[in-house]
């Protein structure tokens, strides 16, 4: 049994009044996830100011057997940063650790602490004529530590890859308080396992990300943003192949959304309007972007793409943003989909991927199948067609009571969608992580060999299960006896 009084006294001495609070009012807003689906309790909120303080706190947690739940901007989609209802864990906020400690414009590298907000990093890079090539709708609140720990994606993965591709070096505090530090970037390093890759995407279950060294790219000198009306998602797939062939490396993003999502944004986001005169079954948002040497070629590339798309019968109507303001308006129509769909009513939201070549066919198959299986629901798919990743939402019948519907039919819907995705050779989590939302489904559907390897890594790095318990990989009952020495048994 942990000596909670002794632990809290030692933690208060370590972190001071700014670094530790038990005030319910100060803690309340951080105890519910962004979607409002999970609310937990915590014995205290810790806000260390340095990696050294994180390490010292982790040693205290290890000494007293206190679980710890790390949290960045609390903008996750899978409940991965919300403590459980027992109140036995410490909620660890990294938001005070918000320094950009090095920005080397010549090397195109930046080192920053985990609490740096993505928008802040974008601004710092832009001031040096550079850019950080990952963005998403929550860039004003998402933090670098959270993005690394969930291997976040976003709208530029098509060209630049997910967060994993941006990380050159990493610093993390492990369960025993030791510090793993590979912040110095090396182009080649063949000393065995690339251990930072194990920590990226582990959702705080193997270590607490405290800093990262990230790659930067030259600033975009010019871009062309196209809004295209299409008759089907299959036409969008063909247009994507055409764009990839024609534009190559300057194809920055290719996003798709159905008419339902478009109408949702227009209805719920003030000031938005449709770029085209008539409705279309599907839309594609395409961005071509280039640095200075290739900037002059973009208008001709955009024009050629539209001409070829019209000639092939793929495009029904299209427009090109005439300035940056209009380009951002086009992107708002994409980025506000999740919030707008949420305003409509309850929905089961799935972050799924299948092989890129099969995504259009999957959507055409899954949408009518889901709506037939669950009468009254509306299934929609939108997102990163070029990555084989869409957000697949199933909206409840009108008038449904959120909690009851999610608990009953909603769970059946998610199991149905996850089974379908698995049958198509896909994944139940493409970019939002597993968290607590999909932990049981991961255990149910994942390859047993993969699960065994993941449990072995967890056992080696966090034998007492103190790091973000209940997230990503809960230990199944059938495995508890074998892992009892490591996980403490029942």
Overview of the structural elements:
It is a single chain. The protein has five domains: 4-93, 2-Layer Sandwich (Uridine Diphospho-n-acetylenolpyruvylglucosamine Reductase, domain 2); 100-218, 2-Layer Sandwich (Uridine Diphospho-n-acetylenolpyruvylglucosamine Reductase, domain 3); 222-337, 2-Layer Sandwich (Alpha-Beta Plaits); 345-439, Alpha-Beta Plaits; 443-485, no CATH class. The protein contains 18 helices and 18 strands. It has helices spanning 4-19, 24-28, 51-64, 118-127, 144-150, 157-160, 163-166, 195-199, 233-247, 259-268, 298-311, 324-335, 337-344, 359-373, 402-423, 439-445, 448-461, 477-487; strands at residues 20-21, 44-46, 68-71, 90-93, 100-104, 109-113, 130-131, 167-173, 179-181, 208-215, 217-218, 222-230, 251-258, 282-290, 315-320, 347-353, 378-384, 389-395. It has a five-stranded antiparallel beta sheet with strand order 5-6-10-8-9. Helix 9 packs antiparallel against helix 11 (298-311), helix 9 runs antiparallel to helix 14 and helix 10 (259-268) packs across helix 13. It is globular, with a radius of gyration of 23 Å.
Topology overview:
Blueprint: H1 4-19, E1 20-21, H2 24-28, E2 44-46, H3 51-64, E3 68-71, E4 90-93, E5 100-104, E6 109-113, H4 118-127, E7 130-131, H5 144-150, H6 157-160, H7 163-166, E8 167-173, E9 179-181, H8 195-199, E10 208-215, E11 217-218, E12 222-230, H9 233-247, E13 251-258, H10 259-268, E14 282-290, H11 298-311, E15 315-320, H12 324-335, H13 337-344, E16 347-353, H14 359-373, E17 378-384, E18 389-395, H15 402-423, H16 439-445, H17 448-461, H18 477-487
Parallel strand pairs: 2-4, 3-4
Antiparallel strand pairs: 1-2, 5-6, 6-10, 7-11, 8-9, 8-10, 12-14, 12-15, 13-14, 16-18, 17-18
Helix pairs in contact: 1-3, 9-11, 9-14, 10-13
